[in-house]
Structure formats: structure tokens, C-alpha cells
Amino acid sequence: MVLRFRVAAAVVAAVLLAPMSALAQAYPAKPVRVIVVFPPGGSNDVVARIVFGKMNELMNQTFVIDNRGGGAGSLGASVVAQSPADGYTLMVHSTTHVANAHVFGKKLPYDTMRAFIGITPLARQVAIAVVHPSLPVRSIRELIDLAKKRPGEVVFGSAGHGSYIHLTVELLTSMTGTKMLHVPYKGGGPALAALVSGETQLQIGTIASVLTQMKAGRVRPLGVTSDKRTKQFPDVPAIAETVPGYEFTAWIGAFAPAGTPRPVIDRLNAELRRAVSDPEISAKLDSMTLDPMHMTPEQFATRLQSDYERYGKMLRDLGTKVD
Known about the structure:
This protein is an alpha/beta fold.
């Protein structure tokens, strides 16, 4: 009797799992839209184009990048949240995603922690403090001294309230007792353009997004946000060398609407692991001081919850508006 029951159970399980397995194998049967929630030019856009460019090859299908900037990523995220949960609309977002839940609160048209499935992080990003050449500072110490001497006069841009590159500066001002003027833009790209033009004077932006302008001498580097100097720029000090305890790195990750079939999520997770592990892709990310990342959906969910709690506390401690 026991043997018959086990055989029957195995048959039922096989019958139930067969359609799911077939779904994963058939996916994707048409082009996949990848919504990048920031304008072109920022690190999210750079990572998405590198990684999903490789996915075109790995999955023998087209992954179309669709930039939907605005609202610190919330406008693009709302499009994804309202899209069919079939695996054909994905999202690339950063740690700003969890910060938005605290900055905008009930104004968001979606539940940050329930409306999406985190597939995997794609890259770890380090930011770097850069200034317009007209600003008479050449180190973090000189920047702090200037900000103390002229409170509220140093103007910095960001990708929006609560964005990663907003909080990097807020953390610095909080730890140094300085005051600077914040100007939010619709993404890291527009914020960098404002800095290059002289409209703003400072940005602690991701290295991937400011690298070209930095190499061209249009912005001057002062310090990186990792706890130690990066291997790519060993001559640029860590901000922590001047402000002990300062450290602020983040991730860029891939998401799908909640309810997307698990076989599809697992297939994407596996292929994205292959993509970020590819030597050519790893080298491209590394050249921009972006470290390839991969987690299981469960591991990513744990990280999301941890960051959600961390950002909530940080925003409250910094006095940033929380709805």
C-alpha cells in the first residue's frame, strides 16, 4: 500500500511539474522589455545594456532596454508593477528602490516590498565624490572646510530625493556637521550634466556614470565611498580616510512583477548568473568599478528586507522627509 501511494504521488508530482518545466524551456518566446527606471547615461542604464546585451546571446531572444526616468525611479517601477506577470516586462533598479518606500510612502502607486520579485543583483556599485573644476577644493578635507566656512552654498545634484547619490552626500554632511544645498534631478545622467555645466558643484555619483567625464577632466575626483580605496583608482582616497566610519555602496538588480511564474524567475536567475560570470562582461563591469553580483531570489529577498530597514532608519536619522 505504501509503495503504491509513493508511486501515485510521484506520478501526480510529475504531471503537475511538467507544464512548469515546459514553461521555463519555452521562455522567452518573444522579445522581453527591460525597463530601466533612470534616464540613459547612469550606472543602472550602463549595467542593463551590458548584462542584457549578453542575455540576447544566451537566451537567443531580444531584451529591449526601455528607459523610464522620473521620481527617483518610481515612475518606471509603477509601469512594471502594472505590467502582466509573464516574464516579458522586467525592471532594472538600484537600492533607491527600497529607499523610495520611505521617501514617498503612500504616494507610491505600488507596494515596494510586495509588487515585485527580486530576481538577482547584477552589480555592486561604489560611488565617488567629484566636483566641478571651478570649486577650489582638491580633497574631502578641503570640501568639508569650505562647506563649514560657507554653509548652504555648495550645491550638489542627485537622481532625486532618497536616491543613492542623494543619500551619499546626506550621510557625509551628517557625519561632518556641514550643510550643502540639494538639487534633485530625474536621474544620475541629468544630475551629472548639471555638474559638468557648472549648474551644480558637487556630486557623489557612481563611478560608472562619472568615469568618462572624470577621464576627460571635466570633473575632479575627491574620494570613493567604499571603506578602502578601489583597485581601479588606487590614487583616489576613500572618504573614510578623512571621515572615519563613512561607507556607502549599493547594488543594481533585476526584478519582475509579483506573480511571475517561478520557473521563469529561476530561468532568468540562472541565465543572469551566466551573464555576469562571463569573463568579458565581468571585465566590462570591473573597468567601471562595478563588481559583478549574483544571488538566489531568496538571498536577494533577504537583502532587500535588510536594506529596507537600513534605509528607513537612515532617512529618519538624517531628517529626510518620510511620509
